[in-house]
Specification:
Elements (H helix, E strand, L loop, with lengths): L1 H17 L6 E5 L14 H12 L4 E6 L3 E4 L2 E4 L5 E6 L2 E4 L10 E14 L3 E3 L22 E14 L2 E3 L6 E4 L2 E6 L2 E3 L10 E4 L2 E11 L5 E3 L4 E10 L5 E6 L8 E12 L3 E8 L5 E16 L1 E9 L13 E15 L3 E6 L6 E12 L5 E5 L1 E10 L9
Parallel strand pairs: 1-2, 2-5, 3-6, 4-7, 5-7, 6-8, 7-9, 8-10, 9-11, 9-12, 10-13, 11-14, 12-15, 13-15, 14-16, 15-17, 16-18, 17-19, 18-20, 19-21, 20-22, 21-23, 22-24, 23-25, 24-26, 25-27
Length: 396
Amino acid sequence: MALHFITALLTVMFLVFVGRARSQTRVFDVRQFGAVNGGKIDSSDALLSAWRQACSLGGMNVIRVPRGTFLLSPTILAGPCRGSMELRINGILRASAALSSLDVDYWIVLQRIDDLNITGDGVLDGQGHSAWKYNDCFWNPKCKTLPTTLRLQDVNNTLLHDIASVNSKSAHLSIFACQNVSLERVKLTAPGDSPNTDGIRVGMSSYVFIRDSVIGTGDDCIAMNHGSVKIIITNVTCGPGHGISIGSLGGSPDENPVRLVWVGNCSFVGTTNGLRIKTKATSYRSLVSGITFADIHVENVTNPIIIDQQYCPSHTCDPKAVSLVAIHYVKYKNITGTSSSQVAVNLQCSPAAPCLNVTLQDIDLSYHGDTTSSCSNVFGSSSGIQHPPPCVNNRS
């Protein structure tokens, strides 16, 4: 099953992106539209003007941000466009540090576009240091969401590669309601204590491929929220951060399932979590199914393998509440390395919706002493090396 959808995804990506090279190409340099190097004068109108002109034309159209530093206020680059679009960033795009930049929950948005390429060796500088002190979400459930650096919304057949994002005010990259998106060789960084600076958030999207990237943040390196289907993550280095997570789920009615996720050949260094599935309690009904974590190495990770169906970051939830999110067919294969806590495998599933068909194969996690497992309401099987000893109930 997993190999089949990986092969299908790679085939789709190859056909989409190779076809672009045959199109006529025009280049629109933002300086020709009034962008000013130096990072002092707002260049958002120049970028928007270049985008609108390019978007109105057929063929392949490139909007180029050259070497230099360009100040950019919150900007929406919208389609549909007549041709294929490329945003080529070779310089630094710098967000505003002014309080007015916090009035919206985005910095750069690309939306309603088919055939999009985001490339270059440039940097998106979110200026997060100016905003993190205003994040009070840990104790305020009605907190204001700070701006996401780059949001892809309703875009299809998209390749993003070799871009760096630093010091996002909130998440670095959000992928929502998209299909056929490939992220390659991206570098996303923020201090380990920066609040809610997720690396990549995925939701309501399918055929998403993330590979060969380095992510170190103050929150999840990658978070797959409801409606994430057919996601492949490979050769990603995560740390610092909260690991690669599915969820949190169950907080809203009618959430779409998370299905067919493959996380392989990844490493985690000094993170609070490694491979995590998290659902809220009390929760609405939802489903997680067909998840594979394979060939993973962890180094000094607090919770290398964790399912938490009592996820409550505000610590104000009812401890007697239960999650109604079902978790089925989850496989952990060849997970090795070191835990910074004794409980290296922590699978706490809901009594109202027990985890079914959970497979542990070749788990080898060490601590200063012997590692242990802790399980509740987990049914499945184990095989091969098991260090710590497994605690799943051997039935499905």
